[in-house]
Amino acid sequence: RQLLECVAPQVATYGGVTVAVSPNGLFYSNEVSFTYYDDMEIDYIVPEMGFVHGGSNDAVTVHGKNFLPSERILCRFGLYTSTGTYEDASTVSCQVPSQSTAQEVSLELSFNDRDFIGAASYTYYTLFTVESLTPSTGSISG
């Protein structure tokens, strides 16, 4: 097996094409499929923040344009990657991975395991506990 890497030329519109390779312009390999997609964009995410523990109960909804139906969507929160779920062409849901420290990270999406688009900002916060509230009563007028 040998690896041949090609750069996809720019095209005017999205859709499927066939690709074949030729060493001399006379004889060609078998054809394989390649799909061009329209440029995807992330517009905003909900929520924009969460706790550092992340986990299976924490999800972010990503809203944008031209998302591709895919069974393997990756959501990258800074250095950590999680799985995403395609909802429709403008919505993807991402599991929030845990982080070791409170920080703001970039959230990016990949629909092909290689190229990431985005980004939106997601902020991790540390867990906190309210120990007391003073005063603990107040007037209805504020």
TrEMBL record:
<feature type="domain" description="IPT/TIG">
    <location>
        <begin position="42"/>
        <end position="125"/>
    </location>
</feature>
<dbReference type="Pfam" id="PF01833">
    <property type="entry name" value="TIG"/>
</dbReference>
<protein>
    <recommendedName>
        <fullName>IPT/TIG domain-containing protein</fullName>
    </recommendedName>
</protein>
<dbReference type="InterPro" id="IPR002909">
    <property type="entry name" value="IPT_dom"/>
</dbReference>
<dbReference type="InterPro" id="IPR013783">
    <property type="entry name" value="Ig-like_fold"/>
</dbReference>
<dbReference type="InterPro" id="IPR014756">
    <property type="entry name" value="Ig_E-set"/>
</dbReference>
